[in-house]
Structures are given as structure tokens and as C-alpha cells.
Description:
- The complex is a heterodimer of chains A (531) and B (361).
- Chain A is α/β, with parallel strands linked by helices.
- Helix content of chain A is 32%, strand content 25%.
- Chain A has 19 helices and 22 strands.
- In chain B, helix 3 packs parallel to helix 8 and helix 8 (198-216) packs across helix 9.
- The chains are: A alpha/beta (531), B mainly alpha (361).
- Chain A binds chain B through residues 33, 35-36, 77-78, 325, 327, 346-348, 350-352, 357, 359, 364-371, 375, 378-380, 382-383, 386, 389-391, 410, 412, 416-417, 419-422, 433, 437, and chain B through 1-2, 4-5, 212, 216-218, 221-222, 224-225, 227-229, 231-239, 291, 294-296, 348-349, 352-353, 355-357, 359-360.
Amino acid sequence: MPDSTPTIDAETPELVTAVSDNIILTAEHITQIYPGTVALDDVTFNVRQGKVNVLIGENGAGKSTLMKILAGVQMPTSGKILLDGKEIKPRSPLEANSLGIGMVFQELNLCDNLSVVDNIFLARETTQRNGLISRKIQKERATELLQKLEQKIDPDELVSNLRIGEQQIVEIAKALAQEVRILIMDEPTSALSATEVEVLFRVIYELKSSGVAIIYISHKLEELMQIGDYVTILRDGRKVAEEEIKNVTLTWMIEKMVGRNPATLFTHKKHELGDVLLKAENLTLPRAGGGYLLDHVSFELRQGEVLGFYGLMGAGRSDLLECLTGARPQATGDVWLNGQPVTETTISGRIRSGFVLVPEDRQRDGIVPTLSVMDNMLLASLRKYLKGGFLAPSEEKSATNSQIKNLSIRVANSQQPITALSGGNQQKVVVAKGLLTHPKVLLLDEPTRGIDVGAKSEISEIINQLAEQKYGVIFVSSELKEILAMSDRILVMSKGKITGEFTHQEATEEKLVAASAIGHGPSNGGNQHES
Amino acid sequence: MSHENNPNTATINKKRSITKIDVQQFLLRGRAFIALILVTAVFAFLSPQFLTTANLVIMSKHVAINAILAIGMTFVILTAGIDLSVGSIVGMVAMIAGLLINEGIILPQLGIIIYPHTWTILLIALAVGTFAGTISGYIITRFNVAPFIATLGMLYVARGIAGLLNNGYTFPNLVGRSEYGNTGFEILGAGNFLGVNYSIWFMLGITLFAHIITKRTPFGRHVYAIGGNERAAELSGVRVSRTKILVYSISGFCAALVGLIIASQLVAAHPLTGNTFELNAIAAVVLGGTSLAGGRGNMGGTLIGAFVIGVLNDGLVMMGVSSFWQQVIKGAVIVLAVIIDQVQARMQERIALQKQQEIQE
Lengths: 531, 361
């Protein structure tokens, strides 16, 4: 969709040249192709010395991929990285490190079974002449770092005994211990409380003044306005804007992130709504260690309705779907289907009742990589093809072929291994697997994640068809334009609660983002994250 | 990945490497069968008696023991599990059969001894073996214990029970007495049908049955799915725990059958019967192309794998190779089998990626 947003592509070359003498690192024309999708498409990213370089974009826009390339976790398909004007090719995090690039990973990369000190110095141990680790020096250094971060963490404590927030601090300390010139921070504050965030920001200011370039990724836009100097915005694997933070507003950033023309990809058809199909009341799921993943959630779904759930990561949307599908035995609450209470508690029982889940993580939860396309597709509905106690190959084939045709799945033949298909086609097989159980309610968790644009619009078309066939569709997405375009009604979740409800007509990006941030603002702190 | 830059060389490279890969894949897939032909040819060349009917029949009888265990083991390994207890269950079941035939069921309170009918004895023995497997499966699924540990525990427990049943002594002469109605146990081991020993029929029957179960029933499909991706199977409504318990029950049942066959062939039950048989069974399964990581493999392969091990065993004995060298060779073959297993897995991945690229182009 290069032509749909002409205004955005008008870059600001004057700006770039004006400050180019400060540029320490440039990722030039980076393209990263994964099987089935283009994660980064010709992205150029500038990192300025002594500044906080913010990178934002929706989930799947390519931020984490770009950072992994800079940190040496993976090599790009094409493009080059220039450090001080010289090309570098970091092949491993250790190599990137020796070049002065460090990273605080979003998913905490700590070894639970080791102490705080051991983690901070992992693979960079300070050794004495005899080859043994100099524990004393390491411990002093670690204590110093933790003091700088104003944390009362015992360096000898096992990481597994720390709170998530403390673990994130350790992760940050680990990066600081490396004395890098460029520090990448991927969502460093997601588990931190408000006071901890303030401390982190003080540390960042200190690093800035000593000339370290910070690359900062976060979904918390207010936070970025506070800490950032420059912002680069990615969308669908392309760079759409690069600006100085002082010149921009929050709304401008959201606009750039989500794009202005969602209508081209996803078509919304007005669906005839039938009776109430599904009613859920007080769905509650306790979080291990206190609090709720789902906090008394109630809602209704009508026949032929596409109900979208929007929210940030960890808002409880996936947990909600997993509760409905019976994957969370510890969940409580009442569910009615067509007015009848659903008493089944197991996954197989819920599938028989008419629920089916298309899970978020296709590789982990969706496909069986060792099986063929056909065997994957039939896995949830095998009993339907029995003849005299045995599976009848003719029935299996006809069921498979009808789904391949209906969902236009591109396969050479149904006996192919599922792993030979592109991401989008694998996803269609998972959807087909669900449809073959003859469900009443389809639960789609990020059904378009990690697949290319064409496949996305095909999946959205399939969802429309299903709604027309009077299925009830619940559909979770983190992509604003997708959820806005496709849903008849949108519920927004934050911290396990429903914090907003909008009809298709009412909903706007701003409203959804605002509702998804309830309880997340910097002022009232992330304290609920703790414990 | 780097192909994108230069499409021309990429295509040429691919054409060439695909033919190479096809050959390699064929060799890897058919590796058990090729190995079987190879070892048979070598022994036939070295020893003129090797390919005689008499020898082949004796060899098949030996193979049957391992093959039946290996079929049960294949179910377990397909779910990415392992069953170390089968050898011990063989011994325990043999001892139970011996006890029931020679001493009957003693009820001290009533002061009587019941001698069950031979058929009843067989059923009880099979039930005990199956139950032992079920217990392993239950422990694995209910308490989330690693299969290796759970079945290692059962290995010791079952072997201990086998010793306890007669204080470590053998039950000799298991012929029964006609006045007790428990004769005929030896027929199981010695009897023939169409001139072929029962144990060989059992082997063929069980392999065929297992083949049909795995390929043509939902249970079989579930076994493969669990081994390939347990979470995905569970979210698809597969009753994972139930299926897993069942595979260990099947393995226990096969072990029990082997215990009965051996006791019957020897007309005696020794508490060490079946010692280390589990290792031969695992070797046969892996050699037959089943991945220890689960999800890949089939029963036909296992049967061939069992024959490879059997031919190797008997061939080396016939050649007069010292028993120490036999162990060295067998050990090397088992490790080699696992190396090949890993190579195949990596190859499969590469082929899948390559096919994917082809589809996209």
C-alpha cells in the first residue's frame, strides 16, 4: 500500500542533514524477509549520539526485527549497518557487544537459576589470571550498578526469587555493565512501577550526557514524549516518518502509526445480527501471585456478529479466549450458548459445545509441524470421518478438499507437510481445522499476525463470510485499522477488565487507544504490575 | 535466505541440491531396509548356513520377542515419551505366570489353593503387565513426571516384584497338572500354525494391528499429533492425558505378552527374564526411523529395525564373534541410529524450507 499515504512519505531531508553530524549508527535500506512475510521493507534508521532515539509502530510493524538485526541476533536479508560511517556485520550479540552495541530485551533474557551477579556478567565474566572468576570485583561492580538504579537488590540473590520488575532492572543493569556506546531498550518499562520508571529515566539522562546513544522502543506514547529526542515510525515493515520529538504531538504519532487509509485492506460488511448466541458473565481468572488476569468480564455476542477485542499486550484478551475454549481450568464465571448454560469444562467438551479457538501463536499452539496439511486440518474433527470404527480416507479427502477450496488455501497437495506452506496458508489451515468441528462461536486470536498483507485481507474476507453464515466471531487484534474495519462492535480491555465498548460507527483509533491505556498512565503508575 | 539477491545462481544451485537431497532423503528414509539387506548379505556371504530356512525360522523367533516389545515402544516414542520398564515387566509377568501355574492362588484364611485355568492365567498375566504400563502413564500425566523417570521407577519396582515372587528363584517346569486343569502353557511358546511358530504370528499380527491403529484410527492420529506438538493437539480437543496413558498401557501389554511367550518357550520363569530388553526395543524403534523427539515414524519401520538388530545378534553369534565384541558392535549401531535420527530431522527441516520457497516463487 505504498500509494495510499502520500503525505506521510514526504520526509524531512533538511532535518536529517542538519543533524547528520551527530549520527553514530545508520541502518541503511534494511530488508528482512521471513518465510511467508516481509518483516522489514527497505528501512533506513538513524541513531544519534547522546540522544534518545525512539522507535514506534504497531505490533508486527518490524521494530523488534530491526533491533534484533542491530544487536546481532540475526542477519538482514539485504541492507547494511554503518557504525561511524564504516560498515559492520554483527553476527552474534557478543560481536555486536564488542562493537559497543548493547540491548535490553523485551522478553527478559535472564537465567533464573543463576544469581543477579552471575546474570549481569554472563558471557563477560571478569576473570583472574588463573582463569577463575573474580567474584569480588564482579560483586562490587554489580552493587555499584544496582545502587545507580536505586535498587535494594542483593547481588547474590537468585533471579528466580525477584519480582518481574526487579528482573527488568537486572536486565537493564546487565546492559549498563557492558559500557556500550549504543544501548537498545525494547519496552524496558513494561513491568516497572512509576517510581522505578523515574529512576530509569534519570539513568537514561545520565547516559545521554555521557554521549551514549539510546534506542528506545515503547508502546507508552506519553512516556516517549517525556524521554525521547527523535522518533522514527514504522508501519507494516516500512519507515513512514522520522521527526524530532519536540516538533510532534501524540495524535500525530498515532496517526502515523496506524496510517490513514485502513479501508483498502479490510472491508467491513454490515452483518445481519441474530439472537444472542453467547453470553458470558463474570469470567474471572486469578493471576498466579495475586491479582487477576481476567477481572469479572461480562459480555454478549449475537449470531452473525464480528466482535473485536482490542487492548495492549497482557490486557487479558488471549486469556479471555482461552477461558472460553476451556484451556484455563482455574477460570470461574458463567457462559451461556443459545440460552443454555455451558457445563463442559474441558477443551474437547467445549469444542463439542461449539467453541473453537484459532490460537495466537500459530507455531506453538496451532500446527503440528510433523503432520501433513490434511492431518493438521482434520485433527480436531477426526470422529466425523469414521466408518465402522476406522477413518475413511475418502471422507477425509473430501472434507480436506472442500476446505482447501472454500478458503482458497494454496497447496500442491493435501499430503504436503504443513511446514512447507507460507504463514498465511498455514493460518488458513488452522482456521479450516476449527471450521471442520462445526462450531457456533469462532475465537480468533490475532488471526492475521505474522502473515503478509495479501493473506491478511483474505483472512478478513473469510471472517466476513463466516459472519454471513451466522457464526458468532470473536476476534482479537492489536492492529487498530484491522479491528476498526472488521468489527461490528469493539470491546477494549485493559488489565483484565473491559474498559470500553464501541459500535463500528462510534469507534476511532484515538478512542480505542485511550480506552486501552486506562490504568496504564504514567501518573497512576504501573504499580498493579508488581507482586 | 540469501537466494533473493541473485536469482540465477540460486535456481541452479537449487536444482542441483534438490536431486542430491532427494537421493539422501531416500537413503535416510529407507535406511532400516537398506541396513537389513546389507547385514543379511554380509552374513550370508560369511556363513553358508545363514540363509537356510531352519536358521531363518530360529532367527525370526528371536526377532519376534524384540519386535513385539518394539511395537509397544513405538507408540510411546511417537508421543515423544520413552518406556524403560518393558524388560522388567517381561520378567514380572513371566514370574506371575510361573507362580499361578506352579503354586496357584493361596487363600490362607480359607486354607485353600485355587489353581486357575491356563486361559485365566494368561489373562491375569496380561492384565498385570498392562496395568503396570497404565500406572507409569498415570504418573507421567497426572504428576507431570518425565517419562524417563517414571518408567525408570517402574523398571526397578517390576524387577523387584519379579524377584519377590519366588525369593529370587526360578519357577521350573511350568507344565501344570491335568487334575488342576492348568496344563498346556508350553503350547504358547512351542506351538505352530501353518508350520510357523506362534510367536512369529503374534509379531506379524501385532505389527499389522498397530499399523492399522496408527494409520486409520483417531487414536493413532492423536498419538502422532501429541508427539509433534502437544499444545496444538490439546487445543484441538485431543485428550492428551488419556491418549498418553493408553500408549504406556499398550507398551505394558506388549511386554506382558513377551513375558508369557518367553516363560512358555523355556517352560520356566526366571526373575531376571527380559533384563535390558528395553534397550534392544528402543534401538529397534529408532533404527526403524521413528524419531525420539516424537511425531515421526511408523510400525513397519520398527519391524524392520527389530530384524536388523536380530540379524546382527544371531549373525555375530553364528560367526563366533566374542560376546564382548557383540556388545561393542551393538552399542555402536544404537548410537549411529540416533545420529542418523538427528541428521534426518535436520534434513527434513531443510527440505520443508526449500519446498516453501518453491511454492512462493
